């Protein structure tokens, strides 16, 4: 198994170099007393989406996820969270914009079972995916439905005790690649391959593999995550976001 990621405290001054990606980890299960100031950071569309969740827990998690996103982007843009303008692309990928122009600051986020990860970079398209590892989900039936033949063969070649980890390695890597493209399921999951063996380098096999680099990491116990970033390699920085909402 790969080692757990070490998340550093949020720096007082943020400096995002052109070849860097900043990754932030946030807990979405905050005490009720922390929520009122975060609710006030959401715009009307986000507030309506939060209210649409049936379960109160899901309302709270969505609220925290969007508030933390606004707090983070505001720090990079040197503005107030309420001034952060988010727009949705043609296939649902959120982007930053001002006066009809997209900004060079790129971001993506993913959340699962009370955790969220945010990826931020300049002028590099990126996608991030986070999943709670549930070995019972890692079935051959689901792999047959969503994985390529080569990926299924590699998964079945693993010892049984590693197949759960291998399954979620593949899942997060494939999802992060699709999210980086920003085209949703216009890209079929079986149209490209990723390697998935735990502890081995990540290899992408696709028609545009030279455009992307995939990084895989374990953000917390029983979770898997992957980042796909444009234009070759990148320097990754891992920060804790929880201090932003305290």
How is this structure best described in words?
The protein is α+β, with helices and mostly antiparallel strands and 246 residues long. The chain has two domains: 20-129 and 232-245, Ribosomal Protein L22, Chain A, CATH 3.90.470; 132-227, Ribosomal Protein L22, Chain A (Alpha-Beta Complex), CATH 3.90.470. Helices cover 28% and strands 26% of the residues. The protein has six helices and twelve strands. The strands form four sheets. The chain has a four-stranded mixed beta sheet, covered by helices on one side. A three-stranded antiparallel beta sheet has the order 2-3-4, with no helix packed on it. The chain has a three-stranded antiparallel beta sheet with strand order 7-11-10, covered by helices on one side. A hairpin with a 5-residue loop joins strand 2 and strand 3. The longest helix is centred in the first third of the chain and has 22 residues, at 56-77.
Give a short summary of the structure.
The chain is α+β, with helices and mostly antiparallel strands. The chain has 6 helices and 12 strands.
């Amino acid at each position: 198994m790969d080692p757990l990621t070490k998340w550093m405290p949020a720096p007082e001054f943020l400096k995002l170099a052109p070849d860097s990606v900043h990754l932030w980890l946030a807990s979405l299960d905050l005490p009720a007393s922390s929520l009122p100031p975060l609710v006030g950071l959401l715009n009307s569309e986000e507030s309506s989406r939060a209210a649409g969740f049936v379960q109160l827990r899901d309302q709270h998690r969505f609220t925290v996820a969007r508030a933390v996103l606004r707090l983070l982007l505001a720090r990079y843009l040197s503005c107030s969270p309420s001034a952060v303008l988010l727009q949705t692309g043609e296939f649902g990928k959120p982007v930053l914009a001002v006066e009809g122009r997209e900004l060079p600051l790129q971001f993506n986020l993913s959340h699962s079972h009370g955790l969220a990860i945010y990826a931020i970079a300049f002028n590099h398209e990126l996608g991030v995916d986070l999943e709670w590892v549930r070995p019972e989900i890692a079935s051959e039936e689901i792999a047959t439905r969503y994985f390529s033949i080569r990926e299924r063969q590699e998964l079945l070649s693993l010892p049984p005790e590693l197949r759960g980890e291998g399954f979620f390695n593949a899942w997060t890597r494939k999802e992060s690649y699709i999210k980086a493209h920003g085209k949703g399921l216009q890209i079929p999951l079986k149209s490209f391959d990723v390697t998935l063996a735990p502890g081995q380098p990540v290899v992408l096999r696709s028609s545009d593999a030279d455009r992307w680099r995939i990084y895989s990491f374990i953000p917390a116990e029983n979770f898997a995550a992957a980042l796909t970033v444009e234009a070759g390699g990148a320097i990754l920085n891992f920060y804790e976001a929880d201090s932003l909402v305290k």
